[in-house]
Amino acid sequence: MTGLPILSLMLLVPFVAAIACFFVEAKLARLVALLATLINLALGVVLWANFDVGGAQWQFTERADLFAGFQWALGIDGIALMLIMLSVFLMPICIGASWTSITKRVGEYMAAFLFMEVLMIGTFAAQDLFLFYIFFEAGLIPMYLIIGIWGGDDRIYASYKFFLYTLLGSVVMLIAMLWMANEAGTTDIPTLMQYDFPGGAQTWLWLAFFASFAVKMPMWPVHTWLPAAHVQAPTAGSVILAGVLLKLGGYGFIRFSLPMFPAASVDFMWLVFVLSMVAVVVTSLIALVQHDMKKLIAYSSVAHMAIVTAGLFSFNVQGLEGAMMVMLGHGLVSGALFLCVGVIYDRLHTREIDRYGGLSINMPRYATFFLLFTMASIGLPGTSNFIGEFLSLAGIYKVSSTVAFVCTTGIILGAAYMLYLYRRVAFGEQKNADAAAMPDLDMREWLMLGPLAAAVLWMGVYPESFLAPMRNDIAALDARLAGVAPAGDANLEIGEPLPVEEEADHGGAH
Amino acid sequence: MDFITVIVFAPLLAAIIAGLGNRAIGNVPAKVVTTGALFLSCALSWPIFIGFLTGSETASVVPVLKWVESGRLTFDWALRVDTLTAIMLVVITSVSALVHLYSWGYMEEDPDQPRFFAYLSLFTFAMLMLVTADNLVQMFFGWEGVGLASYLLIGFWFKKPSAGAAAIKAFVVNRVGDLGFMLGIFGTFLVFQTTSIPAILEAAPAMQGVSHITFMGMRLDTMTVLCLLLFIGAMGKSAQLGLHTWLPDAMEGPTPVSALIHAATMVTAGVFMVCRLSPMFEAAPVALGVVTFIGAATCIFAATVGTTQWDIKRVIAYSTCSQLGYMFFAAGVGAYGPAMFHLFTHAFFKALLFLGAGSVIHAMHHEQDMRYYGGLRKEIPFTFWAMMAGTLAITGVGIYDLHVGFAGFWSKDAIIEVAFAKGSEVGLFAFWMGVFAALLTSFYSWRLMFLTFWGKPRWIESEHIQHSVHKTPEQAGEDKTGGYHPHESPWVMLVPLAVLSVGAVLAGQLFAGSFLDSADFWAGSIAYNEQLMHAMHNVPWLVKYAAFFVMVTGFVFAWYGYIKNTRFPGMVAEQLGPIYRFVYRKWMFDELYDIVFVKPSFWLGRVFWQRGDIGVVDRFGPDGAAWVVEKGAGLAKKVQSGYLYSYALIMLLGLVAAISWVIFS
Question: Is residue A498 scored above 50 in pLDDT?
Answer without folding.
Answer: no
